[in-house]
From TrEMBL:
Protein name: ABC transporter substrate-binding protein
Species for this entry: Streptomyces rapamycinicus (strain ATCC 29253 / DSM 41530 / NRRL 5491 / AYB-994)
Membership in a protein family: Belongs to the bacterial solute-binding protein 1 family.
Pfam families hit by this protein: SBP_bac_1 (PF01547)
N-terminal signal peptide: 1-25
Keywords: Signal, Transport
């Protein structure tokens, strides 16, 4: 997910889908909503204890401003996770969610009135403030040893500038290939991408469209395709090459990037490969990305999308069960050399102020008890490695977390690091490519021009 409206959509859509079903009863007294049972009394007590420790054992009082991207029902879940902090420390957290977060933060920074804390869904637009000396490094605010003992090195490296860590992940998303265990006939643990591709081509040849795909998200249309392309690239060329793409060492017109787009196009622009053909791919809402897998009869077999896809898909059909009617396997790589490279996105907390209240909040928000409060909502996987697996009441999220946080090389792509103009060009380029497959060269040249002027 990103700081733009397009990348916020997975969260917004997940909430809207779940709240539209009978499975979405909320309980504000326990902080539960949507598909989760909510935190237990012991989890809430642990969060209060952690919060008090983060404040040095004192009820400090006062107020902290925190801006994030999640509003509505999901914003309420975040407020619920912050409540034990306020109860224990007396510090009121003024949390506001805004999909246009990057613009709001930029405006406030330019006006000399930055928020105390920002919980953003990207890296690029925020780390520029670190380079400008406007963010507080978390090695001094939280402590280097605490950060290293609670988070994978690759996540800390992602928010490091000139040797200092400036962001701490909470929500974290990875990507996988989804399928319906009751109807899927292909390999459930393909060793290579070629094995999966062989199955999809066999399905297409037999007149059965293999891939589920939808790209319509209004102004943000195309972002699922951008994630598909990044995943294919990472699993074929590895993390170092993806970093080169992110850093501009590898251009958007390079053979490697072009190959990733063409691999996507071989699926998205082929009537035999995607359910309904390219026209349906462009017109179908991303909410319906995976519904073809769980329809009767199914109209497609597999879908490459993020961890949030489980909630979105099952939210459309609440009678179905996670694991029984919907499951996933890791995105296979072209070779074993890239098998442990894992694309990720997520939410990162940054601090603009260095004072006792902000310090206490950042320590709390990075802790396992605080992130367990979010896990208990049943909507998110969280980054802190000390969260017990038992905290996950959603089996698909538990499986995703265990896969993602155990020895993987987590790598973020252009969608997380690029400036908003490049992100928009990427998404729009996906739509243009599906509409006119012969225009790829010009599309990539256009994105490169945008990147070069950013």
């Amino acid at each position: 997910m990103r700081s733009s409206a397009a990348r916020a959509l997975p969260a917004v859509l997940l909430t809207s889908c779940l709240l539209a079903t009978t499975a979405c009863a909320s309980n504000t007294s326990t902080g539960s909503a949507a598909s989760g049972k909510g935190p237990s009394a012991s989890q809430i007590a642990a969060a209060r204890k952690e919060a008090l420790a983060a404040a040095g054992g004192k009820k400090i009082g006062g107020k902290v401003t925190m801006l994030g991207i999640n509003g509505g029902a999901e914003g309420q879940l975040i407020k619920n996770a912050l409540k034990p902090f306020t109860d224990a420390t007396g510090i009121q957290v003024d949390y506001t969610g805004n999909e246009d977060l990057a613009t709001v933060v930029q405006t406030r920074v330019q006006a000399g009135n930055p928020p105390d804390v920002v919980d953003a869904a990207d890296l690029g637009s925020m780390l520029k403030y670190a380079k400008q000396g406007k963010l507080v490094d978390l090695d001094s605010l939280i402590g280097t040893s605490t950060l290293k003992s609670n988070f994978p090195k690759s996540l800390l490296d992602a928010t490091t500038v000139n040797g200092k860590t400036y962001g701490v992940f909470n929500e974290i998303d990875n990507f996988m290939v989804w399928y319906n265990p009751k109807t899927y006939k292909g390999p459930k643990a393909p060793a290579t991408w070629d094995q999966l591709e062989k199955f999809t081509k066999q399905q297409a040849a037999a007149g059965k469209t293999p891939w589920c795909m939808a790209q319509n998200a209004g102004a943000g249309s195309g972002w699922p395709g951008a994630q598909w392309i990044e995943n294919w690239f990472l699993k074929h060329y590895g993390g170092a090459k993806l970093s080169d793409w992110v850093n501009g060492k590898l251009s958007w017109t390079s053979p490697e990037v072009t190959a990733a787009w063409k691999a996507f196009g071989a699926v998205a622009t082929d009537d035999k490969m995607v359910a309904g053909g390219p026209t349906t791919v462009l017109s179908s809402s991303v909410v319906n990305n995976g519904t073809g897998m769980v329809s009767s009869p199914p109209t497609c077999s597999v879908m490459l999308w993020g961890v949030y896809a489980g909630g979105v898909t099952l939210g459309q059909k609440p009678s179905l069960k996670a694991g029984t009617d919907l499951n996933f396997f890791p995105v296979p790589a072209s070779s074993q050399a890239h098998a442990d490279d894992e694309l990720f996105s997520g939410h990162v907390a940054y601090a603009f102020k260095n004072n006792p209240r902000t310090r206490a909040l950042m320590k709390y928000w990075a802790s396992a008890p605080a992130q367990t409060m979010l896990v208990a909502s049943g909507q998110w996987t969280e980054a802190n490695t000390k969260i017990p697996a038992s905290a996950y009441n959603n089996p698909l999220l538990k499986k995703a977390s265990q896969h993602m946080l155990t020895g993987k090389n987590l790598v973020a792509g252009p969608s997380m690091y690029s400036n908003p103009a490049v992100v928009t060009a990427f998404d729009k380029g996906v739509v243009s490519y599906i509409q006119k497959p012969g225009s790829l060269r010009g599309i990539l040249a256009g994105i490169q021009r945008t990147a070069s002027t950013g």
